[in-house]
Automatic annotation (TrEMBL):
This is Pectate lyase. It catalyses: Eliminative cleavage of (1->4)-alpha-D-galacturonan to give oligosaccharides with 4-deoxy-alpha-D-galact-4-enuronosyl groups at their non-reducing ends. Keywords: Calcium, Glycoprotein, Lyase, Metal-binding, Signal. It is an enzyme of class 4 (lyase). Binds 1 Ca(2+) ion. Required for its activity. Pathway: Glycan metabolism; pectin degradation; 2-dehydro-3-deoxy-D-gluconate from pectin: step 2/5. SMART domains: Amb_all (SM00656).
Amino acid sequence: MEVAKLSLVFLIFFYNIATLIPSLRADIGEFDEVWQKRAEEAWKNALQAYNPHPEEVTSSLNNHVNKAIEASTNTTDTTGAINYGFEDDDLNGVNNTVVSSRRHLRGRHRGRRSLYNGRCMATNPIDRCWRCRKNWAKDRKRLANCALGFGHQSQGGKDGRYYVVTDNSDDDVVNPRPGTLRWGVIQKEPLWIIFAHDMNIKLTQELMVTDKKTIDGRGANVHIAFGAGITIQFVKDVIIHNIHIHNIVRTNGGMIRDSVDHYGHRTASDGDGISIFGSSKVWLDHLSMSECSDGLIDAIMGSTAITISNCHFTHHNDVILLGASDTYTKDSIMQVTVAFNHFGKGLIQRMPRVRWGFAHVVNNDYTHWQMYAIGGSGRPTIISQGNRFIAPDDRRAKEVTKRDYATEAVWKNWLWRSDGDLFMNGAFFVPSGRTNTMKLPYNNLQMIKAKPASFVRRLTRFAGALDCRPGRKC
């Protein structure tokens, strides 16, 4: 019944999209015929990507996690990956000091692998699909087969040729030069974008990414920093992998090319690290993100089929926003998986904050927050499984969850579930919604349990940008 109601809402929206154009503008200075067509196509794509049975996706992810851990037997498998047995060591020192259980973190903007000098370890099912292969650089597109969760359909630029970024400049946003990142992301054809060498890219204006693009930073130390961020607007099939994104600032806007055939006026940008707007089939993996003017990652305005995995987040206030408005009910189609991430030092809130949609938050490590970890409003569904939550010492911030703009009489009906989570230093999760899993809103939601949270430290050990070099196991 719930799915039928949503389908009716979606059809009404599609046939009346013209009446909603003002709310879809985002940073578009002139919502011309090109943008209107993109908005219409993006909504069709979102409806196709929306899964009316999200339990199928979450169960699949959990099944992969369990298989990966069962296969960890201290042997080399047929792919060449070294599989180490997991040690249930995350609880050591719990009764001593919380500091001993928190991660020893590196300096800002450095790769996670830099502290590890042992043999290659692929500790979760996404990484086991591609990592620890000596010839990974000759088979880069294998990565496109490795996504799990709601963004698993994203193929990025798998069907296209390789494009090599050789020029880190960004001084012409209307007529970008071949060799720059901006030139690559606006092309009509699918592209798998890689980098010729280490580089720091300071974006003059927001980087507009078109359909079927992969930005693959493996093999180089790539930073997008101290300028504008990345915008994924009204497109599909985008993969962003293994780069550092930090110190993103607000920009004034202006004339910006958003495709080979079109450029137009963009208003001021908010300073998000990555903004996903009305887009579907997006996978963000192994990113190191911190210190942006607004959010690190925003997914809003009908975006869906998204996976955020293996990322390392530090030093930020508003980390992940899923759904921007309590009044924009079309975000009911939003489905996002947040898996194997490390929410680390200097974070305050929104890990994630959810409106309307469905968020599967599984096997993440929350070692720092100052206000709360997971929040929301507008009746979202949040399933938290097998996460580790280490509360701050502040007694006012022990609660993992935070609900906004609703009384308890209202939010008690929102489905927020904690399953197999580990709570340390006084952390606690306030659940809500029906307890009978056979009567959940999403057609008898039944999920295989995620791996116990005591394994999270291992599952997320290599979160963030990796130090991958051709000819060596990554």
